């Protein structure tokens, strides 16, 4: 009989052969461990690698953990400021910039594996519940919280929490043997960007900005209004130690001091066209004599503000060369609230300079401060190495890019009385430890002293340097009387400042240190001589004019 499928037989045979090859190839590759060619035929190579590991690695692997560890390494290949941040790290990092967080309202330090309450925020939950500065927190929610588990990160995790939730603390108070139990209802705790604002003399106001957060600009306006009530006619803005924050806050503050149309900063990146930020002319202090203080820890938004003031010849920059961060990061959050901060652009000061320092060698970037110190830059202006070309301010003064804002007036770090004993006492943490112990033991007496001057006078009569040396020797720092004598002024200044900080506030601490601060002294000199506005350089008659485009 004639086969009715005869004419389709070759087609069916071909289909069977192809199916046989595909099935055979799959099983051969699967069991031989060679799936790479098939997987790489499409898709992302990194994803493919993770699939291979998940499918074939000899041991069970937690792919999520592997990704968590790999992401920081991948981003580190781009630049030093593109980073991956876990959800908990992101929450901690953003608290200062958001302007508030939910917690109990204390400043604390970890000493001898125990939380020590350093300051209690006025009218906060902890103060209302009866917590005092000097208290030791040894229990949290009926669990012992001392020892190796007691870290800064873990303490913040346990003490912070959603609004109106409760936390029960076990507290040991100085002079008491019985444990106190205090239950605190968490509330909103404000975080201040402006930590000090006061009059340096009858005419000169001073404002210290710790960082640039959401509320920094309104805080500045409040500080300026209070200084205006005291009839200030000059201003010092202290950005030393300010590592930055939000670009928008720096732009808002610069706007207060610049004239309409003056460029503050501009940003530009491969996927982000140039964006200019200009003053709108609404600033209330466009003609106020101004000095800005910077140092090697002033970075990012601090450099935006300092660069805008310098390039527009609006005021004088005093201090040491700033950090050199000219990269703009965009935060991008994942579903688990972890995030990456990816560099998307560079920012440029009004003269056109990008002040980002070189980062091709990651290890050198991290050790830049050490290199500057060893090279002598902290002590001599002539030792500053500029990696960028020359630029010119509005008045034609030369400024440099490629590594921070170089101040108009250089102030060296004071090393006259520095000794190896002082360095070890500082870096070991012994000065901080002793200052806290002294504050704790004398808290009631010191708290009755209302002024910084009164406390300073009292403490200098107590021979705190000699008492510290005895304490340090008991804790492993060999006593060296000649070095102690040479560094006596530095040791006393450090000890007294920390005791004042522990008893009163950061503003009191700042006021004490500013009394003999060389940068403050130089700023006041400029104000007296009406020289806070940088002038156009006067060229010799034989010099030809040079145009700059």
Describe, in plain words, how this protein is organized in 3D:
The protein has 21 helices and 21 strands. The chain is α+β, with helices and mostly antiparallel strands. Helix 9 (247-255) packs parallel to helix 10 (301-311). The longest helix has 24 residues, at 9-32.
List keywords for this structure.
4 domains, 21 strands, 6-stranded mixed beta sheet, Pdz3 Domain, single chain, disordered C terminus, globular, alpha+beta, 549 residues, 6-stranded antiparallel beta sheet, 2-enoyl-CoA Hydratase, Chain A, domain 1, 21 helices
Strand content: 15-25%
Q: Helix- and strand-based class? A: alpha+beta
CATH fold topology of the largest domain: 2-enoyl-CoA Hydratase, Chain A, domain 1
Share in helix:
25-40%
Give the overall form.
globular
Q: How do the helices and strands line up, and which of them pair or pack?
A:
Elements: H1 9-32, H2 36-39, H3 45-56, H4 63-76, E1 83-85, H5 87-98, E2 100-103, E3 106-111, E4 114-120, H6 125-129, E5 136-140, E6 143-144, H7 152-159, E7 166-172, E8 180-185, E9 187-190, E10 194-199, E11 204-209, H8 216-229, E12 234-238, H9 247-255, E13 263-269, E14 272-278, E15 290-294, H10 301-311, E16 316-319, E17 327-333, E18 339-348, H11 362-366, H12 368-375, E19 390-392, E20 398-400, E21 409-410, H13 420-427, H14 430-441, H15 443-447, H16 452-460, H17 464-474, H18 481-486, H19 488-503, H20 506-514, H21 518-528
Parallel strand pairs: 11-12, 12-15, 15-16, 16-21
Antiparallel strand pairs: 1-18, 2-9, 3-4, 4-5, 5-6, 5-7, 7-8, 10-11, 13-14, 13-18, 17-18, 19-20
